[in-house]
Amino acid sequence: MNPMSPAPRQSFFQAWGRVFSVFFAFGRRSRRFKIYVALSQMPVVIAVFAQVNQAFQGQGFNSALLFFSKGIMSFDLQFLVLLLVLFYGTSICLEEVEGRTLMYLTTRPVPKAAVILGKYAAYILFLVIMINVGIILSFLVLNLRTVGNLSVYPVLFQYVGVLTLAILAYTAFFTLLGTLSKRALVLGLMFSFGWEAVVQYFPGATQRFTIAHYLKSLLPSQTTTGGLSFLTYRLEPTAPLLSVAVLLLLTVVFLTAACLVFSYKDFILSTD
Amino acid sequence: MSAVIETHKLSKWYGNVLGLSDVSLQVNPGITGLLGPNGAGKSTFMKLVTGQLKPSIGRVLIDGQKVRNNNGLFGRVGFCPEYDAFYEGVTGWQFLTAMLRLYGFDTAETNARAEAALDLVELRADKDRPVRAYSRGMRQRLKIAQAVAHDPEIIILDEPLNGLDPLGKRKIIRLIRDYRSEGRTIIVSSHVLPEIEAMTREIILIHQGKILATGDIHSVRDLIDTHPHVVSVTCDRPRDLAARFLGEDYVLSVNFGSAPQTVVVETSNRDRFFGRLPGLLVETGIAVEEITSPDDNLQAVFDYLVGK
């Protein structure tokens, strides 16, 4: 060691990169990562089960795309993604506070915003890979007979894009929640399976107050028509470009707010 | 000599609970011991100094600069927390190199500094073991390693000797003293006073969030005007010496110690006592074997100051 030689000055981007690489490495070694990887592959298990079931009935899977969009995607978008993103998003700040490792980050020459954004990027990468691998594999399993048919793939890419936007927006929201409250997990569950699950089905403009609304606006048409459809869910979609813009804007707003809160809030560790 | 760390009317409240109250002091290069019982406010003070907490009132300056969110300063400061907390599933090496990478060092320098720091705390042989498999003492040494690995000018150590065996404590004390000789500024907290005494005589006594006294142990001792100082004199004629002391107005009591040939004198004025003692010994021809002041032990001073 060279005595008294100061640590080199880092730009914000360099600091962000350092945080990202540290938590990408730490994250891969954690036990929960293995559990989450296993959880994220549930759509594949469901797809395999559906295929086996069809095979035993002596017929091929004729409505694979429908099963994928109505079954697998609904399960992913309304349950699995929300759950995994909730755990990862809230943990960005809370795991440091509850694990009392926060001081290792706040006493380093790294802007606090770089800590939030670096961890966010590392966890986003995990989520995007594990969730999209699960969805792609389940799609391939369900479409075994039409794997060579290139016309089905644009739909898959559309779903992957929507899931990625969902991961970005929801993780940003839960990151903010994690910086604001120690009860972020409970609040996040209430938001995910309360607010998001219910308000998205409200008629009129109210459904626009959910993230789910903008995600569903990007999926192939789900509007129910005819019969008693007026009594059932009716998506009143926002234009695709506007939906993408709103989702990205929400991501930026939530992350900015999370960085500000993390920079100025006093986090009291358990034995203070 | 200008102060490296300065606090002005520094106070911290956790809701309605007082963490630190109206602390104004200056810390110079060298070792400063922060003494106080558990919950006295030592950790709060250190967290304020390292910018982890925002003062409720007052301010903290390092080299004249504000600390909180001042990233340029953190490269010059090393902090060893009291908590036994590490990231899940990492080895000692992975933890230390990750912490160093956050300072912006490149891979080669990170590895060199990590190896040097592990050598300092004698953990190199165990560097590839998971931290969760480390003993308490090893984890403590790893925390110290992450605090000093980047060669900081200012080192803040919160209870650094916790969990170490006597040999380990001696080595860390030697390390801290070496840092002092290099001109660094070190604040060490402890509630085990002989440990601090082994490192420094420059102390800050803290209790219930308030600074009771600061300075050299003798200066602190002198602040206690009303508290009697105790001096033990081992000589060949303790009873004669006791008789002479009883005639002095600054002597409050005279006892015979448990050790043979020892007289224990309680005085209200340490300076007058030590000023008079040599003359008294010459006049009476008493041969003195040893003069000690049990009060010089920090424990005695601390016990008195906190009202025990």
Could you describe the 3D structure shown?
The complex is a heterodimer of chains A (272) and B (308). Chain A is mainly alpha-helical. Chain A has one domain (12-264). Chain A has 10 helices and no strands. The radius of gyration of chain A is 21 Å and the shape is globular. The two termini of chain A are 34 Å apart. Chain B is of the alpha/beta class and 308 residues long. Chain B has 2 domains: 5-222, P-loop containing nucleotide triphosphate hydrolases (Rossmann fold); 226-305, 2-Layer Sandwich (Alpha-Beta Plaits), CATH 3.30.70. Helix content of chain B is 35%, strand content 28%. Chain B has 11 helices and 14 strands. Chain B has helices at residues 42-49, 71-74, 92-101, 107-120, 136-148, 166-181, 193-197, 217-223, 238-245, 270-284, 298-305; strands spanning 5-14, 17-27, 30-35, 57-62, 65-66, 77-80, 154-158, 185-190, 202-207, 210-216, 229-235, 251-256, 262-267, 288-292. In chain B, the strands form 3 sheets. Chain B has a 6-stranded mixed beta sheet, sandwiched between helices. Chain B has a 4-stranded antiparallel beta sheet with strand order 2-1-4-5, with helices on one face. Chain B has a 4-stranded antiparallel beta sheet with strand order 12-13-11-14, with helices on one face. In chain B, helix 3 crosses helix 4 and helix 4 crosses helix 5. The longest helix of chain B has 16 residues, at 166-181. Chain A binds chain B through residues 1-10, 14-15, 18-19, 21-22, 25-26, 29-31, 99-112, 263-264, 266, 268-269, 271-272, and chain B through 14, 19, 43-44, 47, 50-54, 69, 71-77, 79, 81-83, 85-90, 94, 98-99, 101-105, 112-113, 116-117, 146, 150-151, 153, 182.
